[in-house]
Amino acid sequence: MSKTVENWGGNLKFTPTQIYYPTSHEEVVEVVKKARENQQNVRIIGSGHSWTKLINTEDVLVSLDEYQGIVSLDKENNTAVVKAGTKLKLLGELLHEQGLAMENMGDINVQSIAGALSTGTHGTGVEFKTLANQMEEITLVNGKGETVVCSDTNNRDLFKAAQISLGALGIITQIKLRLVPTFKLKYVSVKSTLDETLQHIEKFKADNRNFEFYWFPFTKTVQLKFVNMTTEPVKNVGFAKKFNDVVLENGAFGVLSRISRTFPKVAPRISKISAAAVSEGTYINHSHLIFATQRLVRFNEMEYNVPQENFTTVIKEIEECINQHQFKVHFPIECRWVKADDILISPASDRDSAYIAVHMYKGMEYKPYFEAIEQIFKKYKGRPHYGKMNTLKHEDFAELYPHWDKFNEIREQQDPDGIFLNPYLQGIFKEKVGSRESGVGS
Fold first, then answer.
1. What does the pLDDT read at residue 295?
2. Are residues 191 and 209 in the same domain?
3. Residue 176: which of 129, 122, 113 has the closest Cα?
4. By residue range, what is the domain housing residue 51?
5. Is residue 441 part of a domain?
6. In which pathway does this enzyme or protein participate (predicted)?
7. Which residue in 149, 191, 406, 408 has a CA-CA distance of 20 to 30 Å to 296?
8. Nearest 5°: CA angle at 219, between 356 and 379?
9. Do 107 and 81 share a domain, yes or no?
10. Which of 125, 148, 181 is the last residue of a domain?
């Protein structure tokens, strides 16, 4: 029976003809072969944390929610083969039990491992690349129903395409991850000003394993987050940190957000209230418990990657733009850093990058704000996070990514009939399609 699917942000709704929940690699092969025979489109959904129309389909939707867990461990070489549907939260727990951890993570852990890595999800830290670089080997079922295994030493071109592939090459079923022994992190939250932060930004990036900050529009207030490895004992966790994450950063902020949605004109004032209440503190725990924070307040998001050297200029232009247009925004702007990599269509391909994310509370008008900020990103050759809102078309991607055409050639080899292409992907890869769609959900 078909049912309507809605993403986390609430901007996407669609009704596939069939939804499959395979429990094995072999069942995935069967689903793909059957769809190919029936000339049906196939898309894959993880946790629905994307805002772009990557998952939309009127035909076959595949969820790997019933295909989670660790397949095998190699503690001598610090690697693990994991099922593609494994949620990051579960993966962190399972690896910790075995004395292993991912070297870096993003700030949300509800996504599936394959979904997060395939869309270019990242953490922060100038010495760390996008999370997909932690892949050592990928097993996928391509558009011909074939099982393909690739790595850096086996079918490397395919591997470099598959690491961030948007689900356009096939369905990833297993991933071998490069891991590290478990470690603890010390998280320090400090309140500062935007001017002070920009003045010391190079030092903050260089002196900390993981560094990021949030700037609150219509104020000069910034929340700095410094995260570094430590051997100190666990500190201020459990109730204290959960209270901070859930009540202070989500509960109270949720109330303020609902006020802003009802009375948009007070949004700038709400931003100032939130800035005044920025939490400061120190927490120490195992890495997988420090990286992730809960997100109970729902929102729409646009995030772009810009060359690291342009970061300060871009932030200043964003501040000027917001002040000039008086956008009704109260969400802080998140800033992170990522090291260059060599994945074909990684946003950080061939350049050290700064990521800047803007948000708008669910139900509030976001388009004028996002469109204005996107123009600034475009001015500095910004590349969007694939799972987050943007308006780019094929011509934009082809210009921004030197290896875009090479990726598309590999995609055509793996999926010659285009069964993994929905209208949005057909548009950005410039395939023939009845009507092209933008990357932003309605």
1. 78
2. yes
3. 113
4. 5-63+404-427
5. no
6. Cofactor biosynthesis; L-ascorbate biosynthesis
7. 191
8. 35
9. yes
10. 181
Provide mean pLDDT across the span 172-177: 99
Evaluate whether 293 touches 247 at the Cβ level (below 8 Å).
Answer: no
Residue with tokens 């094929």: 394
* pLDDT tens per residue across span 207-265: 999 999 999 999 999 999 999 999 999 987 655 555 455 444 677 888 889 999 999 99
Rounded CA Rg of the chain: 21
The CATH number for 95's domain is 3.30.465.10
Query: Binning pLDDT at 50, 70 and 90, where does residue 353 land?
Result: very high
Take residue 359 and report the two structure tokens written for it: 């948000």
Please give the tally of structural domains in the chain.
3
The model's pTM is 0.94
pLDDT for 253 equals 86
